[in-house]
Amino acid sequence: MNAAATRSSSHVAAHRPGTGALRRDLRLAAWQVRYTQRSFWRSRRAAVMSIAFPLMFLAIFGSLNTGETIDTRGGLAFIDFFVPGIIAYAVTLTTFNSTAMTMTALRERGVLKRLRTTPLPTWVYVAGIVGSTILVMVISTAILLVVGTALFGAHIPTHTMPGVLITLALGSVAMTMLGIGASRLVTSTESGMGVLTMITLPITFISNVFYPLDGAPGWLEDIAKAFPLRPLADGLQHAFDPATTGAGLVWHDLAVLAVWAVAGAVIMRRTIRNLNARD
User: Fold this and answer.
1) Which is nearest to 126 in space by CA: 205, 12, 29?
2) Which of 21, 175, 252, 275 could join 95 in a cystine, given CB atoms 3.0 to 4.6 angstroms apart?
3) What's the alpha-carbon Rg for the chain, to the nearest Å?
């Protein structure tokens, strides 16, 4: 009797309207990821910004600093500092910049406005964009890791993989949601890249991405650490350092990224509402 009741309860739960609707929405989100992926790889500009730019910087800086070490980092090989730094930069381009440009293009084409007249939930559409963005980030990171290790001899300590993965995941989520929010600052796709570059480039130069800022003025350090790129770069560089012991987690950096993730979620929610209302 109890077994029959259990089977009956499971059968009812599986056919609840809410459960069926959620499954349908998840399938639609997965389809949206595939559609967004096709659109992304057809756009040469998007692919160049997300994949080619970081790869170009890796090739240049890796070639110019072959065999170099950083005395202020205990003789750390430059390439072991630079690879995680350029990965952090690639994450910024892929998640923050590309997402902001994608949302701006959708707004310009009236897609967000038309979305309100369809039964497709807005969150499903946005989830597809976010999922595609994260997928591109994973591909970009993998390419940089392969090139960095195969051509320039960068080390990837396996025992610190928890630190690498958790830092990447938290940083990517925060940057993606902030990118959706940043689309409010972009008036058009023509001016968008310039606006976003003005936001990200200065922050990149003070965030230990291209070279260590050991000995920089304290006020500059404080400004850099207030933005998500610096804790993302520092966290990855700590995890990639061959001298690091443990899981490679830097709790302070993760805490800053978590705060930005929460702030990004709030900003993203408001942005989506405003974009729908403004279109």
Assistant:
1) 29
2) 175
3) 21
Average pLDDT over residues 255-265: 95
Picking from 225, 193, 232, 264, the residue whose alpha carbon sits closest to that of residue 46 is 193
Lowest mean pLDDT among 220-224, 231-235, 257-261: 220-224
- Three-state DSSP class for 69? strand
Question: Bridge partners of 77?
Answer: 69
Average pLDDT over residues 235-252: 92
Residue that is written with structure tokens 């070639």 in the block: 63
| Residue 8 confidence (pLDDT) above 80 | no
* pLDDT classification of 214: cutoffs 50, 70, 90: confident
Sorted by where each begins, the domain ranges of the chain are: 25-278
Q: What is d(CA 3, CA 5) in angstroms, rounded to the nearest whole number? A: 5
